Amino acid sequence: MFPHHREREQPIFSTRAHVFQIDPSTKRNWIPASKHAVNVSFFFDSGRNVYRIISVGGTKAIINCIVTLSMTFTKTSQKFGQWADSRANTVYGLGFATEQQLHQFSEKFKEVKDAARLAREKSQDKELANTALSIAAPQDLSDDLQSPPVMCVNGPEDKLFRSQSADITLSSEKERIKKMLSEGSICEMNLEVELFTLQDSNSKLVAALHEANANVEQWKKQLLAYQGETERLREQVADLEAHGGHGPSDLLKDELTQSLEELEALLKAKDEEIHILQSKKSDYHEIERERDQAMHRLREVEVRNSELERRIQKTEQNLSNSLEDRDRMDTELQRAIEILDIKIFDLNDLRQSLVKLMDK
Questions:
Q1: How far apart are the C-alpha atoms of 306 and 300, rounded to whole Å?
Q2: What is the dihedral of CA 330, 335, 339, 342, to 10 degrees?
Q3: Residue 128 DSSP label
Q4: Degrees, nearest 5: CA angle 313-195-114
Q5: pTM
Q6: How far is CA 79 from CA 2, 62, 198, in A?
Q7: Reduced to 3 states, what is the DSSP secondary structure of residue 92?
Q8: For the segment 145-201, what is each residue's pLDDT rounded down to a tens digit?
């Protein structure tokens, strides 16, 4: 029977890196698996008791690797590391932005590998205990499981076979439910990774936006100060032009004109920076919209999972009813066999009595 509630894969660590795969033809060159840096996450599957490294780029999984005891993460430079996946027959490489991120990923890889080793040891101990129980059980029940001999009247012994249709139906129903659960789990996992990426990008963009807003306020104050200085210099230039030779020299006039031009260029540069920050605000709203869409899709997947769980419960109930019907049919069939044995025994006694009468 299937459990009513299914454990989900939970992310335990995530970082951003450029993903590469080894060239299968040369086994030397690296081929980029993603155009930009993507999220690379460690997931723990409590149902199967395994750890996986997952990275999703767009709509496809770039990395889907189960961590095994034979894997080793090797640092090949200050910001690059690699490991081999024998199941996928490839070598993965990760390029990080900083040396600290590479160190964090390497340490987490070692922790996950140790955890996988402990999980495997516990699983082996459990299998050994189950094997010991399964070996001891038939010896204890051997005397109880011996069936009584069947009496025969004429000809060879007739054998009674049970129908296999019920078992085939149960197996096919279990396979169909497993397939439904796997599809729902993959879809939900992809949406969770996408939501995790959007939340990370959103938090970074919000921090940058707050910093930009603070800079804008400061630049506005500087802009007002520069505008006041520009007006003052313009007034001085106008006074110099009005008084002609009675004011400062022509050299001072040229210096004031040059300072005025520099201030106007600085004002133009600040205006361009303000326009850039305003365009970043529009990008922030676009990311907010994408996050809302991801949340909407995640809610739809949760609704679908709830529907799948409800259907699974209904199917389990049907399976339970089918098993009860089959057990009841087996009981009735056993009772009919016992009655048939009694009838056969009575007929044998009657036959022997008739033979004795005919001999007399």
A1: 10
A2: 100
A3: H
A4: 80
A5: 0.38
A6: 45, 20, 24
A7: strand
A8: 344 443 333 444 343 344 445 456 556 666 666 666 555 555 566 566 666 667 666
pLDDT digits (tens, 9 = 90+) for 284-318: 777 888 888 888 888 888 898 888 888 898 988 88
Confidence class of residue 243 from pLDDT cuts 50, 70 and 90? low
CA gap 245, 250 in Å, rounded = 8
Question: What is the separation of C-alpha 150 from the centre of its chain, rounded to a whole number of angstroms?
Answer: 58
DSSP code of 13?
E
Q: Measured in whole angstroms, how far is the alpha carbon of residue 13 from the centre of its chain? A: 12
Taking 60 as the threshold, does the pLDDT of residue 246 lie above it?
no
Question: How confident is the model at residue 105, as a pLDDT?
Answer: 95
Torsion (CA) 81, 84, 88, 94 in degrees, nearest 10? 0
Residue identified by tokens 């919000």 is 206
Spell out the residues 6+ positions from residue 105 whose beta carbon is closer than 8 angstroms to its own.
Answer: 15, 17, 40, 73, 81, 94, 96
Name the residue with tokens 């795969």: 21
Distance, in Å, from the CA atom of 315 to the CA atom of 201, rounded to the nearest integer, reads 42
